[in-house]
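To close the chapter, one final illustration. This time we ask the reader to focus less on the individual chains and more on the assembly as a whole: which components sit near each other, and how the overall shape emerges from the parts.
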Amino acid sequence: MDLTCPIPLQNTSHVLLAHGGGGKLMQDLIDKMFAMAFGKSCTSHDAAQLTMPTGELALTTDSYVVQPLFFPGGDIGKLAVYGTVNDLTMAGARPLYLSVGFILEEGLPLETLWRIVISMQQAAQAVGIQIVTGDTKVVERGKGDGIFINTSGVGVIGSGLKIQPKAIAPGDAILVSGDLGRHGIAIMAQREGLAFETTIESDCAPLVNPVQDLLSAGIGVHCLRDVTRGGLAAVLNELAIASGFNMEVIERDIPVREDVRGACEILGFDPLYVANEGRFVAFVPPDQADKSLEILRSHQANAQIIGQVTTPLSPDDIAPVTLKNAFGIARILDRLSGEQLPRIC
Amino acid sequence: MDLTCPIPLQNTSHVLLAHGGGGKLMQDLIDKMFAMAFGKSCTSHDAAQLTMPTGELALTTDSYVVQPLFFPGGDIGKLAVYGTVNDLTMAGARPLYLSVGFILEEGLPLETLWRIVISMQQAAQAVGIQIVTGDTKVVERGKGDGIFINTSGVGVIGSGLKIQPKAIAPGDAILVSGDLGRHGIAIMAQREGLAFETTIESDCAPLVNPVQDLLSAGIGVHCLRDVTRGGLAAVLNELAIASGFNMEVIERDIPVREDVRGACEILGFDPLYVANEGRFVAFVPPDQADKSLEILRSHQANAQIIGQVTTPLSPDDIAPVTLKNAFGIARILDRLSGEQLPRIC
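The assembled structure is written out below.
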């Protein structure tokens, strides 16, 4: 593939309103940028026509509004591909096809768009998902924020596989696939212009391989969930309520890197509430916990068993997740009302 | 379904940044608005798990940024459902599932969001498509414009059906499914605060039924395309290039209502370049043109045969679409460079 930067397009180096208008300038943008990066087939008709292997279909969507657009360890394009691929993976699906919808702000440098497009192409290639259809809209200066990206993903779920909150059972071991807090801290440090001793890079990464390895090793995975907005606290609370079971996690077993812990202290964040973009929790039967951990550690050395599913929720349980500290004292791990970090993804 | 307005939510009547944060406020928005309108199943997991009938899969995506959000004949929500459903329909697909991604601006009245959500639910119900998964992001005041909506659609294509530009053949009759120009003029009149003698309503409508009727009557449809951004001129030029054939249309046969024609004159627009949201062109074998017209007219009385596909394009043909006026004089129907009407959809 020829990835030479095609700028300027028709004598302009910035996005114009007309790039969203359905005319020649829009066609020029599609031909010279999107078709170049994603392949011609993604741009030729209103809907992509696709073959579908046997199995159930998984469909997911996410919009990405992260600021800044480029950050240590990633950018909005990479995030938009891996984020949606990860949502498919969490349903036990094999990712197949991706749609891309751009909302561009008038005046965005085309060079910025190109960098993002190339990053998306490379991320898609890395996980073997095809970008098959897309859409571009342009809004006036001051009515957007550079670029917003929606990606929707289609995957196929192997027959009989039901990886979902309702499959969570009492006694299930809760594993986390790696250290927590890096994505949120990478973004915040960049946004606030903070420099730490070492640059903290986002954990932004595809989760296809560790999940595929769990499944092909015959682990009876009950549920998977990527630990994104709201962090571990939000995810465990949501799954506790959806499954109908209380959960208990051990504070010292939750992996957080020293530099991330330090940055959290400086910035005033709790790492258990910070977003990640390449980490997930897995719920597996207790007798398969050690084998699962071994598989996860072959991908991320700091994967951990962090707790277990306990008793059924009673109707008036409002705090289903407890956190045990080093002294064995339990406290409630509640969700926050909002988000400590807006526009983290 | 109980469609009582659930506002205020947790003591607020406007969108807060925290509504996009993955915490309790976001869950509240999902539970009280989206689950109420779209059904609980759409909100419970990262990816929707769906059964898929046999056939090829169609996938399409569109973002909607129309201003104003409410206009005569529709609103951004109705547009977001029908627009994407129509893209599936144009590929000959039966629409099945829809994803919805909201990008909300901080401060949007929740009452506005609710009206849009209900409009989406009613539109989805009208065409029998299920909204199965969604996402919500919130951006700061001044970084968006009230609400942007992405919808992605999945449909199934009956076996053997290949409705696409490459199937267009010389001699094909070109039909348009109804009068042109209403959507763009409805938006512009609203935006400019213009009042005409009669209110011109958008043609915003689903195209499933007329297309289904063409197919079940055994019409050998070669290609379908909804006449949206850039109007008839953009669509015919795009299809001429994609198919490799020149096309000729007869000016007086192109249906444009008198009031729309008058409004176009006042506003300085050419109706052939104005966007529609409930009209399509169909390419059918010449011997099936009359039967096709009869079917289209059973849905819209002003459907018309407007022209035909002529000779193969030679490599240096740069103006593949010609328009013949009442005196038989042909002129080039070129595409515009940009769009006369930004943010029309």
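The two ends of chain A are 29 Å apart (CA to CA). The mean pLDDT of chain A is 91. With these observations in hand, you are ready for the problems at the end of the chapter.
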